Amino acid sequence: MLQLLRKGAAGWVAKVFLGVLVLSFAVWGVADVFRTGGSANVAASVGEQQIPLETFRRAYQGELRRLSEEAKRPITPEIARMAGLGDRVLNNLINEAALDESVRAFGLSVSDDEVAREITGDPIFRGPTGGFDRAQFNSILANNNLREQDYVLLQRGFTSRRQITDALTDGVQAPAVLREAVHAFESESRTLSYLTLQQEAPAAVPAPSEAQLKSFYEEHKASFAAPEYRKLATLTLDAAAIAASKQIPEAQLRAYYDENHPRYVTAEKRSIEQIAYPSLADAKAASDRIKAGGLFEQEMIARKITPQDAFLGDLTKAQMFDKKIADVAFALQPNAVSEPVEGAYATVLLRVTGVQQQQVRRFEDVRNDIRKVLAETQARDELRSRHDAIDEARLGGQTLAEIAKAQNLTLRTIDAVDASGLDPAGKPITGLATQADVLKAAFEAQVGSENPAVATGEAYVWHDVLQVSPARDRTFEEAKPLAETRWREEQARKRLATRADQIIAELTGGKTLEQVAQAQKLEVDQTETTRLGGAPAVTQDQATAIFQTPVDGFGKTPPGADGSRLVFKVTAENTRPFDPKAADTTGQAAKIAESLGGDVVTSFVRKLRDDLGARVDQGAVTRVVGGGEG
């Protein structure tokens, strides 16, 4: 969280500090930067700036904690040392100290008001209302063992350093020549004529000989191995099934309808138009003109508003913000214009152009919906109690079969299933609630073990592992049907590739696409594609093959999702004119500018470090990263 605080407090500059400037020794080197020496209470110093050992310890432990949270497992000090974590954290602190020395040398400072604005504007301290929340602020600081004055000092330092980095990066833009190169790469397209070769159905491939099939089996023997299968007994307690069996008395259905009558009423809606006036006198004058034969539309024109601006919408009375205006609007006759209405915020004339009458759904129309709601409510209440009863029976030694009989549930036996949910024939099992979770638990359990229910929001599934069939190699006879299927599929792919190669040979030999198409009974199509594909029949992988082919050259694409290939001729290479004044819609220019700005800051800090030198007390640092202290 401290890392998050540092990022939030520094804004854009934190991306420089904690992204570009969190550098390993591979970037900065070792011997030319660090020289030992100093106080035991100081981890390092740069110029006149010192990095207290406690500051380094706190930063190191915070980064260790953050990485452990990201990895969802503890990162031990040994692993951290192997990864050079302490070196990287100290490097970052040295970078900041070098900038602090530069701030001091330039005589820069930050006002208290600016620090306050930075803190109160930080998104991580926003509360439910979207503004700065003092309780959130205090909570985050407490979780990171920071006092308010400590954090204010951190923020002041970040903001001071930003004065330098902002000055360095202000106005940094992607050079036009680089933007033009990116534009050329991304906008370039190829025009091509092509034939689509469909892969034949594997079943149409002539059957293999016994020798071919045995050879294929031996080459791919590992892929024909039978996985581990398990025989399972499962018992499912499902709220939906409980609800389906519920019988709700008619009187209870009727009582629910009466108690919840408003939800079955669709309130009256009115299509309302409104013209607002600066004063009551202006509104009365307009009303008089309409009464004398003028039109509401003429008043719109006079007020310079469009019909769209005048139309408030199709609204219920409750949806209207101003109660006084709502009362008048819902008392008007259709197409009549109101008298001037002095609302809470405006004086208006109203017109109602349409009325959708209130509608009430009859009990007979919603009876089944009510039965479903009540049944599901009762089922959810019953689900927990029945779950507890089943668990108690399991603890009492009853088998799933005995429990199923007592609870009037169905015990399901799955004779054989692998971890992915397939039976020995390769068909998926179906109808098992929370199947993925049940199978995961079942393949972690032992035969005869008592396993807890696998739970989802609306169901529980108990399971017993009855038998385990270990993974094994299938014999040739067992694998023969599957081997033949795969052999035919492979042959279909090979035959299509050979066909594509033969066509390319004919094309390079002088035949035209049209001549080949006629002989192959195919159609010649044309399209244009970028490097990302996107054109009809062209995927990104296929576009790669197209862009590797010169203009007037022939080629073939990799298979598409359906196995088909394109044999093509590149007929043109297209480029789009580059307009340096055009807005960058790809975001590439901003990324380039950000990268260049990072390079500028990195170079500046590198020079600072070279000029100021850095001194490190390696013994003190080792006590932190080696676990000798803290």
From TrEMBL:
Gene3D superfamilies: 3.10.50.40, Porin chaperone SurA, peptide-binding domain (1.10.4030.10). It is a single-pass type II membrane protein. It is found in: Cell inner membrane. Its main location: membrane. Signal peptide: none annotated. The keyword Cell cycle does not apply. The keyword Zinc does not apply. Keywords: Cell inner membrane, Cell membrane, Chaperone, Membrane, Transmembrane, Transmembrane helix. Residues 248-368 form the PpiC domain. The chain crosses the membrane at residues 12-31. Pfam families: Rotamase_2 (PF13145), SurA_N_3 (PF13624). Belongs to the PpiD chaperone family. This is Parvulin-like PPIase. It comes from Methylopila musalis.
